[in-house]
Design brief:
The complex is a heterodimer.
Chain A (H helix, E strand, L loop, with lengths): L2 E12 L2 E12 L3 E5 L6 H8 L7 E6 L2 E2 L3 H9 L1 E4 L11 H11 L4 H14 L15 H12 L6 E5 L7 H16 L3 E6 L2 H7 L2 E6 L2 E6 L1 H5 L7 E7 L11 E7 L2 E6 L2 H14 L3 E8 L3 H10 L4
Parallel strand pairs in A: 3-8, 3-9, 6-7, 7-8
Antiparallel strand pairs in A: 1-2, 1-4, 4-5, 9-10, 11-13, 11-14, 12-13
Helix pairs in contact in A: 3-4, 3-5, 5-6
Chain B lengths: L1 H18 L3 H19 L6 H17 L3 H10 L3 H5 L5 H31 L5 H22 L8 H17 L12 H7 L3 H12 L7 H26 L6
Helix pairs in contact in B: 1-6, 2-3, 3-6, 3-7, 3-10, 4-8, 6-7, 7-10, 7-11, 10-11
Classes of the chains: A alpha/beta, B mainly alpha.
Bound molecules: adenosine-5'-triphosphate (ATP) and magnesium ion.
Magnesium ion binds next to helix 1 of chain A.
Chain lengths: 309, 246
Amino acid sequence: MDNAIEVVGLTKYYGSFLAVDNVSFEVKKGEIFGFLGPNGAGKTTTVRTITGVLRPNSGEIRVLGYDMLDEREKIKARERTGIVPEMANPYVDLTAMQNLRLMGELYGMGRREIERRSVELLKLFDLYEKRNVKVKAFSKGMKQRLILAMAMISDPELLILDEPTSGLDVLSARLIKDVIREEKRKGKTIFMTTHNMVDANELCERIGIIRRGKLIAIDTPEKLKQLVKGSVSVEVSFEPMKLDPSEIASATRVELMGDKARVFTNDPDATVKELVHYAERNNLRIVSLRTLSPSLEDVFIKLVGEGND
Amino acid sequence: MIETLKRSFAIAKKDMRIFYLKGPVVIMGLLFPFFLFLAFMIGRNLSGGHLLVGLTAMTAFFTSTAVGPTIIPWECRGRTFERLITAPVSLTTVLLGDFQASLYFGLAITFAIAVPAMLYLSVRPAIWLFVLSTLLAVGCFSAMTVLMSSYPPTDVPADVMMLSSLVKFSLLFISGIFVPIENLPAYGRWISLVSPLTYYVDALRHSLGKGYLPVWLDLLMLALFGFAFFFTGTAIHRKVLERRFT
Ligand SMILES: Nc1ncnc2c1ncn2[C@@H]1O[C@H](COP(=O)(O)OP(=O)(O)OP(=O)(O)O)[C@@H](O)[C@H]1O
Ligand SMILES: [Mg+2]
């Protein structure tokens, strides 16, 4: 069994509102899988059915081989999973240490093991100094780090994270991303939702994009980017700056911007060669030349923006 | 099984740490019954035994129902509930933890008040019956809070607090604390039988030598009410769980 999560034909209604529509995908063991979508697309609903908080109207969900629709198996799956729900909080009237201890006890860990692991996590998340301070006094970033630490108390093999970095400053977000990457290196599986394309691009090996309850794409970030070939461009700067668009045959469109030009193309290889020849012919010095691949954001806007209401 | 108990105890510990120091708990659970007791009992020239029964019954009833109803609304409000129920515990284990929190709090305060009161009033009840009925009663009232917290599935603690207070006061006045049930008109006696508190008051009076209903019935009814409260409460919680995530 190489799949950590298997979702087949997942459908979830709220009353008569169809929030998740026949979604199927799997998350392979050891990968970081990103779940992307605009607000209200159905990410959290999907996560909650995977964690067993909500019951789907139809479909099958297996986590680590356990059937999440079965009460007993659900708990077995959770024993080996760390979960960060959307906008979850630690207990603000408890200290960081007490929060971690509670989680450890809920995971059935021994007292000593809990102490050891808590200290390790507090240090990892840069919270050790504040371990005996009530969480009330924590900043948002500190709370979010603690929430992730709580999810990791039992060193679970699967992490399910609903927007783990939303609303955090660059440093907290980076710390969390580093931890996620480190967990992956140790062979753990991570399933996460996010709005942040840059994070998804840096972190995820595969990405699913959901829009209005439907899964509309699922692939590696690089392959997804090929869906928007037209937006590959070459940025060039000459000295002196001059460029006659008609001399670059492979260009689909040229934008002159200040001291540089952006040449859109379907064949970056040909375009680069043409630009170099152009510079030679016209005695221009090349100050810079680089190809800009489409960002995940381009993909997202193309896929999600089309016919969005 | 042992594992379930251990994990539910972890939840109870958390509840006790968090909720017992909240203002409404102290007021509704401690100060309020105390003043109510003063208002109704003092100056009526009641016997020591009558005072002890009234004080103990009211303390047990109010302390064990002080926190329970609002725990889950507080968890929803604080956004800690989803975290809790996605831990490897069942909803029943979570509720068992909340139940225990009320139980320990209720028992601790009830005995802390009843024992000095016994000494002060020089009343000597049959200890085994006093203790057994108090255990059952506090368990029963704690289970009642599981039911009280189940509906409506709100994240506004004040809503639940209001509803549960309404129920609590209704029960208080039909339970033979202020007027012994044998002195009630027939219809009043019938009504009083729907309140679990009635059986506790009666059992306490038995421990002092004079009850109205058979003592085995008192104990049995407390146990039955307790189980019924817990199981219907759990069932309703399970049913409305999804509605808490809206
Ligand atoms: N309890 C509910 N009752 C009714 N509709 C709901 C409920 N929860 C969510 N919805 C609707 O279902 C859709 C999907 O919501 P969901 O929270 O899964 O989106 P999301 O992708 O997580 O969005 P976000 O990025 O804002 O977190 C939304 O249109 C939302 O309005
Ligand atoms: Mg969401």
